[in-house]
Amino acid sequence: MKKLAVELGVDKDVVFTGYLDEALKPNLYNACSVFVIASPAELQSIVTLEAMATAKPIIAVDIAALSELCHDDENGFLFPADDFMTLAQKIETIISMPALGKKFGDESLNIVRTKHSTEITFEKYEAAYGKALE
Question: Helix/strand/coil (H, E, C) string of 82-123?
């Protein structure tokens, strides 16, 4: 990836951090304008929830659980798998429209608080285990 960044001429704009201590993650999220995830293999995507908890707008590939976290045109944008032109357009839209990014970020935080808090998650697990025991 480092070699590719040099070949593409973006190496001065890309940081490969390596391992980051958990305590430093909020600083990383707070330094960005938008959170983008193009991984087609996300099951729960804790990293997306972390970004949402720091009030970031989300751009996510429309696969698996990511559409449960990124609500298209509410807290960010979804894009079709492998459609990198659409992805680039969505990034440009959020970066060029800070008020939209703020609106999406506020909604990301709201979604985390109302649907994915620790308390809500525990309640869902308890209900599922209770049902399984019945």
Answer: CCHHHHHHHHHHHHHCHHHHHHHHHHHHHHHHHHCCHHHHHH
- Count each helix (H run) and each strand (E run) in the chain, helices first: 7, 3
Rounded to the nearest angstrom, the gap between the alpha carbon of residue 33 and the centroid of all alpha carbons in its chain is 12
User: Could you tell me if 52 and 71 are in contact, meaning their C-beta atoms sit under 8 angstroms apart?
Assistant: no
78: CATH: 3.40.50.2000
d(CA 109, CA 71) in angstroms, rounded, equals: 12
* Residue 45: CA count within 13 A, CB half-sphere: 27
Domain interval for residue 122: 31-133
Query: How far is it, in rounded angstroms, from Cα 117 to Cα 125?
Result: 12
Contact by Cβ (8 Å): 69, 76: no
Domains in the chain, number: 1
pLDDT of 80-121, one tens digit each?
A: 999 999 999 999 999 999 999 999 999 999 999 999 888 988
